[in-house]
Amino acid sequence: MSYSKGLEGVIADETAVSNVEGDIGRLSYRGYAIEELVKLDYATVMWLVIFGELPTGAEQPDLEDFLCAHGALRDGEETMLQALPRHLHPMRMLQSMIPLLSLDAEVEFRDLRGEASQGLQIIARMPTLIAAWHRLKGANPPPAFDDDVADLHNFLTMFTGKEASTEHVDILKVVQILQMEHSFNAGTFTGRVVASTLAPVDSVFSAAVGALFGILHGGADEAALRDAQAVGSPEAAAAYIEQLLARKGKLMGMGHREYRKVDPRAVILKPMAERLCKGTPYEDDFATLKALEMAFNRQMEKRGKEVWANLEFYKGAVYEAIGIPPEFFTSVFAMSRAVGWLAHFIESRADNRIIRPKAAYVGAAPRQVA
């Protein structure tokens, strides 16, 4: 039998949700190129990822109404959230709170019933959990949920405590669409493994959050910006990269195992990040990130390689510029990727088989206790 460390190149199952064509640098959801999808409304792309087709007629408003109806924290949920230690990272908060949410198994949405509907309820509640945790960590009261506005404007307003600007909401929408789905990434595959055991949907989401937290996965956004801030200036970038590579260190957010060409999501985000940060206190952070990428590229060229920034590399500068601090980067990522998790949960349950690979045993030969 074949063996591949990290399951690299192994086809574990089929999916119709998204297609990562790394050799040509292309990403599509349900057959639609990501370059086209970022022009659409957030709820439109949510519908597409979950249901497989673009919404028509009243379908998108119905989804928005459902998210409004299930977005506010219940009394018991808010009490439990406030009881958590304030030092918890937002991703640990999500892992703790998702299994504690009050989810109605009797609620239906279109053809989503039972656990699939509960998954959509989790998606509705995650933005409110994240915004409330940000407020609580800052010793502020939890925000009021506007049940007339269940979109990214509502989230950003709750999170920052002030009316979100159209510019900030628009760029947040682009980032969230870009990271909504990415085939069998580590977090999604973790969710599918847990789903395959017939564990409940809240356990699936909680496990996927745990995988996304790692700095080799979703946590790279926070790590990349912290690296840039530690470097301090574009002028220091080249020396930093030389020292980093000399000790065989990693520059978080650079390169991607799936892409042999430039990450198409980074191609979209990088110029938007530059425009957003220009003339703001975050312009230096962006300039340092850009200098780090260029210095890294030069060093890779000397080794006969091409390695470029992925989505995570410049995303942190965008989040920071719209009022989201580094500690919350990955949790905001999670509230978008959760849409993909639900799509994969539904897909995997349609033809379920427990995921149980074999391991190549390399331990001691059979022996006896003397």
Q: How would you explain this protein's 3D organization?
A:
By secondary structure, this protein is mainly α. It has a domain at 34-165 and 179-213 and 333-349: Citrate Synthase, domain 1. The chain contains 16 helices and 3 strands. The protein has helices at 34-37, 42-51, 59-71, 75-83, 90-97, 115-137, 152-160, 166-178, 186-196, 201-212, 220-231, 237-246, 264-277, 283-302, 311-321, 329-349, and strands spanning 18-21, 26-29, 32-33. The chain has a 3-stranded antiparallel beta sheet with strand order 1-2-3. Helix 5 (90-97) packs antiparallel against helix 10 (201-212) and helix 13 runs parallel beside helix 15. The mean pLDDT is 92.
N to C succession of SSEs:
EEEHHHHHHHHHHHHHHHH
Number of strands: 3
**How do the strands of the widest beta sheet line up side by side?**
1-2-3
**Regarding CATH, which class of the domain at 34-165 and 179-213 and 333-349?**
Mainly Alpha
- The class by helix and strand makeup works out as mainly alpha
Per DSSP, the total helix count is 16
Shape: globular
What is the rounded Rg?
A: 21 Å
CATH topology of the domain at 34-165 and 179-213 and 333-349: Citrate Synthase, domain 1
Q: What is the average per-residue confidence, as pLDDT, rounded to a whole number?
A: 92
Amount of beta strand? under 5%
pLDDT below 50 for ≥5 consecutive residues: which ranges?
none
Head-to-tail CA distance between termini: 34 Å
CATH architecture designation of the domain at 34-165 and 179-213 and 333-349: Orthogonal Bundle
Major β-sheet annotation: 3 strands, antiparallel
Helix content: 40-55%
CATH superfamily membership of the domain at 34-165 and 179-213 and 333-349: Citrate Synthase, domain 1
